[in-house]
Each structure stands twice: as structure tokens, then as C-alpha cells.
Amino acid sequence: MGKLFHYLKPFRLSIAAALTLVMVRVLTELYLPTLTAEIVNNGITRGDTAYIIAIGSRMLLVAALGGIASIAANHQSAKVSAAFARVLREKVFSQVENFSLHEFDKFGTASLITRTTNDITQLQMVLLFGLRMMAMAPLMSIGGIIMAVSLDPALSLIFVTVLPLLFALITIIGRRGIPLFQKMQVKLDNLNLVLRESLTGIRVIRAFNREDYEKQRFQGANQDYTTTTIKVHQVMSVMMPAMMLVMNLTTIGIIWFGGLRIDSGFMQVGDLMAFIQYGMHIMFSLVAISFMLMQLPRALASAHRISEVLDTVPEIRDPQVPVPIEDMRGFVEFKKVTFSYPGAERPALYNISFSAGPGQVTAIIGGTGSGKSTLSRLLLRFYDIDSGSILVDGVDIRSMTQADLRAKVGFAPQQAILFSGSIRDNILFGKDKSDAEVVKAAEIAQATEFIARTPAGFASEIAQGGKNISGGQKQRLAIARALVHKPKIYIFDECFSALDFKTDAKLRAALKEETAGATVIIIAQRVSTIRDADQIIVLEKGRIAGIGTHEELLATNGVYKEIVFSQLSEEEIA
């Protein structure tokens, strides 16, 4: 948790102000019992009304000062804790944005969401109560002990027995609670994972009539989390009753022995009243500490989980001295590239070598699992290769910054991902382009026809995940998004699969003119989509089985010929 404290540096003045105000409140709380003792000893016992009014007025002023200090301290504490949580969320989000796909796989989406929301909220609450209570409680308990000793050193010996007992209780319960809180956060991750999968996959679940199965999965994860939570609170619930029992027994002891000292003439009634108040301050301060310690184990577990994210060094990082990219032409070259996914038994790609130049359409085809989409992920540097090199204009992509590389690439993925917002926003996706350029990109992507049918045209809203449009419409918008910023390299990763043959043909004809001066890489399953490509690369089990035009491969390559005959009739082939 200490690693995260340096994010509090920008708020040092606010923290200092909060602690100062807390100190003012503590001083007022400690001063009031002394004034109470003075009223009882010198005013009530003597019947001096003027003295009672004078000291009472002073008590009102002190109480008002303490109230104002308390409100201001709470305001500063809330302000600091909320700002701290905001900074942490920004840091975690920025760190996750830099993760490679391997780090995403390692943590899991559900866990990252939990860490960014629930875990940071836990730290925010602990900081909030910490500035309010943990700063006040030690000052109050120490000040209360000092004031109690100044009133009656002999009676103060009662705390010598009580305080070690309280600290022992807090330590024992805290040690049992911390591991359980850590387990509880893991169980919450699993619960979020099951819930997220059930919500995002609701169409598949209903299509296969698996609602009951998913209910059982959720009930299992929910029961697991509930059981752990109950265990945690069973342990922590012992703390408060035990503290209250000790506190009440202490009060009885103070009154008992204090009464004996009053009877012996060593103590006045007002001093005993003040002593009881100081004893309550000390006890309540320790109760506040125990309350914080009930929250601290969970906060420590959350801090550890957040630190795991922030301390993770992304596998893919920009070079310290990147090669500047000024006028990229878009010439792509793979040189003996081998790549394996983490934990895989064999390489996904092995000894891959080919080149793709501007003005040239390079198509990649192969069976499922042959490594087609892996090529696009490597070119975009979502993963780093095991050996070999990938060059763009003769420069290894590992020598460029990721931003420079991806700024020159237009990517339309197999699974079209859209975001909540308008159609125009999804096509632009943060790019500064004119309305005319947006319309042109949509026209080339064959999207204007269905956009014109929407109520507000390009201003029509897209639901989360694009749930209010069809798969083919989503793919056309994803293609328009790749086209609008006119990159030097285009990657179309099976993004024509949801299009009908007529739309596919019209789209490819429009693309040919638009991308004439760029490097175009098309990854496809359909032969009809890639048969006119300048070169076709055939992949089989991660290796290149052949490179050539459609006619050359059809005449010489058995793997390609098998793919063609499985899709086209003899008339279509001829």
C-alpha cells in the first residue's frame, strides 16, 4: 500500500490542512472535560452561578470551534480521497492501455474492471476514514492519557491493564481477517467474470437454451463469494462487541476506584467526571482504530492488486531512441518470422517470409488456425515476434514507436467493434476529418445506403457494442473507419465475411481505386474475395504453403487448389 502513497504528493497541502483541522478538533475535545471539571468543582459545588455561566459560555465557544474544524476536516478529507481515487483510476487505465494482449490475457478483463472500480473505491474509503479517524484517534488517545494522568496518576494505572488487552484483540482479529479479505477480492473477480460472460453472451445462452446452466454457474460463484464474505464478517464481528465489553468494564472500573478515591479525599467529583470523559475518549479512539482495522485488510488486498497492475512492465514497449517516421511509403516485409503464443505447444507462425508493397494487393488465405489473423496482430505489434524481423520501409517495427506505426495503418478487424456514440463518431474515432471525408469513406465502404435509412443519418446513435445494427452493417462501418484517415497500409482481416457477394464485389471495386497507392493486405476465407489480388499467400499450419497469383497457385499448389474446389464450382473456376 505504501507504493501508492506517492500519488498523494500533489495533495500535500490539503492533507496538511485536514490534519491541522483534526488537531484543532482534538484539542477542543480534550479541553471540554477540563472545563466540565471546573464547572462542577468550582461552580456547582459552591453555587456560583456567574462562574457557571462564564465557563459554560467558554464551553460553547470551544464546542463551536470544534464543530467548525470537524466539518472543514471532513470536507478536506473527502476532497483528498476523491482526488486520490481519480488519479489512481487514471494511472491504472493508462497502464492497461499500454498492456500487450499477453498482459490482458494474464489479468483478465473482469479482474481489470474490478481493480479499476471496486479496489480503488476500497482505497478511497480507507483514505477518507483514515484522514478523519486514524489521524484523530492516536492524538485523542495519547492526549486523553496525558490529561487523565494529570488528573489522577494512580487511577490512570487502570489503562496499563486495558490498553495491552485491546491491542492484543486488534492484532489477533486483524491477522485472521487479512487473508480472508484477499480471498474475497479473488472471489469477487470470479463473480464479475461469470456475470460479464452471461450478460455479453445472452444471445448464445438463449439460443442454446442454457439459462438454467448459467444460473447455476452464477449461483455457484455468488455462493462462493457469499461464504467467504460471511467468514470475514464472522471474524471481524467479534471486534466491536469485544471492544465495547472492554470499554464498559473500564468505565465501571473508573467509577468504582474513582469513588473510593473521592471517599478518601484524593479526588473531587468534577475530576472524576472529567476522568470518565477522558477514558471514553481513549476507548472511542481505540474503537475508531478497530473500525479502521476492519477496513484495512481489504484495503491492503486491494492495494496489492492495484500495485500488481501498476508494477507490471508491458512486454511491448517503445524503444528509448525510436527511429523517426516522416514519409512512410508502406512497404511491408516479413523476414523469417517465427512466433508462438504464450503456453502454446508449437509456433503459430514459423519461418514466414514475404513482402507487400504500395499499389499492390496481398491476400492471405488458409484453413482455420493456419495463422492468418496472427500475421495482422504481429504487423500491428500487438505481440512481439520470437525471431526474425518485420520491416516497414526497411525499418524494424520494434525500432518505431507504437503510435507512429499504428498511425500509418488502417485496420478493419474480423470482429467489428463499435462504440456507443453516433455513426459519425464511430467512423472518425477521434480523427480530425471533414464531413465530406466521412461521407466518402462511408460511400466506399458501401455504408451510405443503410445510413440514409436511419432516422438521423450520420448523427444516428449506435448502441453499446453496435447491438442495434446488423453484423454486415457493423463491418462496413469498421471498414469506413479504416479508410477515413487514408493510411499507407491497409489490413482487412476477414472483414468481408458478413457481406453478401454483391456488396462484397462493389466494395472491392471501390477499394481498388481508393487504395491504389497504398499497401493492401486482405485476410480472407472466401476465394472470390481474393482471387484478383496481385499475390496470394497460402498458409497451412503456420507455414507458407505457396505464394503467387490465383492462376499460378491453382495450377501448381495443392493446398490452394483444395480450398478453391471446396468453395467454387467448375464453371466459376473456369
How is this structure best described in words?
With 574 residues, the protein is an alpha/beta fold. The protein folds into two domains: 8-311, ABC transporter type 1, transmembrane domain (ABC transporter transmembrane region fold), CATH 1.20.1560; 332-573, Rossmann fold, CATH 3.40.50. It contains 21 helices and twelve strands. It has helices spanning 12-44, 49-97, 101-107, 109-134, 136-151, 158-200, 202-207, 211-236, 239-264, 269-311, 372-379, 402-407, 423-428, 435-444, 448-453, 471-484, 501-514, 527-530, 550-556, 558-567, 570-573; strands at residues 332-339, 349-356, 361-366, 387-392, 395-396, 409-412, 421-422, 461-462, 489-493, 519-523, 535-540, 543-548. A six-stranded mixed beta sheet has the order 6-9-10-3-11-12, with helices on both faces. The protein has a four-stranded antiparallel beta sheet with strand order 2-1-4-5, with helices on one face. It has a two-stranded antiparallel ribbon with strand order 7-8. α1 (12-44) packs antiparallel against α10 (269-311), α6 (158-200) packs antiparallel against α8 (211-236) and α6 (158-200) packs parallel to α10 (269-311). The longest helix is centred in the N-terminal third of the chain and has 49 residues, at 49-97. The mean pLDDT is 84.
